[in-house]
Amino acid sequence: MIKINLIPTQEEKKLFKEDIYLFIFFVFLNAIAVCGFYYKNHLDIIEQKKIIDNTKKEIASLQSIYKEYLAMEQQKKEIERRMKAIDGLKEGRALTARILYDLTNIIKENVWLRSLKKADNKLNIEGVSIENESISDLMEKLVKIPYIKNVELVNITDELDKETNVTVKKFIIQGDVSF
Predict the structure, then answer these.
(1) What percent of the chain has pLDDT over 70?
(2) Cα of 81 vs its chain's centroid, Å
(3) Which of 28, 45, 87, 173 could serve as 125's disulfide partner, Cβ 3.0–4.6 Å?
């Protein structure tokens, strides 16, 4: 019969103790590494919070400058709007003078204008004439002016002139003006 000794020997117990010490040492090293990592992250978080606070303070200090910038932008828009209005007036002034100049060249002796209105791109002419042919000639000449479009006779009526007791033709002509 063979005898087997199952009781560990002293050397095996010693090796088992060394393994436990080695295991505890590695657990301790890991704990130190985790604590070091945590501490490093904590310091980074504190540093980032300081940077954020400094940035917020800088933004707060620049708020007045930003408000001034917005006010200047508003003033710039207002000036641009005014300049655009002035340019529109200049353009309209030249066009109105040109209309008056051309009308003086095309109106016959027996046609009299009572009113001439130009609003935006619309031209409205009211006047009187002794005969229909003069009104027809006026319309034909208005059509030939390049910046007056869609000329039409809106109304023509007979009217008795109170001063001379003569029947005259009252007319209204409309058209579009584009420069």
Answers:
(1) 92
(2) 13
(3) 173
Residue type, 164: T
Domain boundaries, the chain: 11-106, 110-177
The CATH number of domain 110-177 is 3.40.1350: no
Check the CA dihedral 41-46-48-49 and report its sign: positive
DSSP annotation of 36 reads: H
Q: Specify which residues 126 forms β-bridges with.
A: 115, 172
Q: pLDDT at residue 87 above 90?
A: no
What is the DSSP pairing of strand 167-177 with strand 122-129? antiparallel
pTM (whole model) above 0.70: no
**Short-list 132, 126, 140, CA closest to 110:** 132
What is the rounded distance in angstroms from the CA atom of residue 172 to the CA atom of residue 152?
9
